[in-house]
Amino acid sequence: MQKVTLKELGQLLNATIKGDATLEISSVATLEDAVQGQLSFLANGKYRAQLEASQASAVLLSEKEAEFYQGNALIVADPYVGFARVAQLLDTTPKQALGIHPSAHIDPSAIIGEGVAIGANAVIEAGVILGENVQVGPGCVIGQDTIIGSGSRLWANVTIYHDVHMGQDCLVQSGTVIGSDGFGYANDRGNWIKIPQTGGVRIGNHVEIGACTSIDRGALSHTEIHDGVIIDNQIQIAHNVIIGQNSAIAGGTVIAGSSTIGKYCIIGGDCAISGHLSIADGVHVSGGTNVTSVIRDKGVYSSATIAMENKLWRRNTVRFRQLDELFSRVKQLEISAKGDE
User: Fold this and answer.
1) Most CB within 10 Å of its CB: which of 8, 35, 38, 46?
2) Is residue 210 within 8 Å of 234, Cβ to Cβ?
3) What would the mean pLDDT of 123-133 be, rounded to a whole number?
4) How far apart are CA 181 and CA 179, in angstroms?
């Protein structure tokens, strides 16, 4: 088990050390659950009451909160960011693969960089390029002419189709499919004619993709996921979608084809974004929102309704259907009132 001193952590975080700088930390935990040898954090003042009762050996605190704690502490500008950096340093997550398993099938034409690890029953097809220190978990399939940048990691049973380019230091969780056909068809008098999806998928550096997410290939040009994007579990990204740098998308969201999401956007869970529209940089879309038109300005956008008793919901649904009639009656009353003036 790796151990680091408060002094070493203070240097990592550019933190002010309060207390015993030689104290050793082996892992991180919440204020409520922490024990000796663990580091905790206080990022929200409403949990201040847990400070004194916490058994943590040290706590990450802001300068504002430090006055309320007499124990060992690292004082930083943002305790939550500090916690994330320490958690990375002390991460005990196992590697996705170790070495190249003898049951893995690797096409002779594939280029495998130094330090690459490939798990059991993985398939690496013709023309694939894997950069240095790529980890491919058991059961993964990497299709023809796909390129995966150095340091990227795939958990078990990820499927990457042909002509997908992924940058450096990406992480893809189990069950995700990248490069499947987009939903492209023409209708000939009731019969669906499939349109071959000949574009690819282009994924930048430091992108993380959750479990069981689908990213469709482009119809002609590429689907694009830019640097630093984080994508949660069970998300559908349709063909030719473009997601800008450092945007975040929460679970259950679906994005229809040819829509563009700007940089630094936050899309809540269970959102539905219609096709062929754009969302400006810095937009925050609340969970459960249906986006059906262009969003041109930075801000917070929401829709949907709150949960309510079924009887009330039924009554409100009837009233919703009456809105057009009500509007017409009010409009007529306004006209009549103006005529009486």
Assistant:
1) 38
2) yes
3) 98
4) 6
Which residues in 198-265 belong to E strands, given as ranges? 201-203, 208-209, 214-216, 223-225, 230-231, 236-237, 242-243, 248-249, 254-255, 260-261
Element (H, E) at 28: strand 27-28
- Residue numbers annotated as active site: 239
Residue type, 263: K
Going by C-beta distance under 8 Å and a sequence separation of 6 or more, which residues neighbour residue 172?
A: 152, 153, 154, 155, 158, 160, 178, 208, 209
Q: What's the pLDDT tens digit per position in 173-199? A: 999 999 999 999 999 999 999 999 999
DSSP character string of 269-304:
TT-EE-SS-EE-TT-EE-TT-EE-S-B-S-SEE--S
329 contact partners, CB below 8 Å, separation of at least 6: none
Unique residue bearing structure tokens 């017409």: 328
pLDDT in tens, 321-330: 899 999 999 9
Whether the Cβ atoms of residue 190 and residue 153 lie closer than 8 Å to each other: no
User: Sheet containing 129-130: which strands, arranged edge to edge?
Assistant: 111-112, 129-130, 147-148, 164-166, 201-203, 223-225, 242-243, 260-261, 278-279
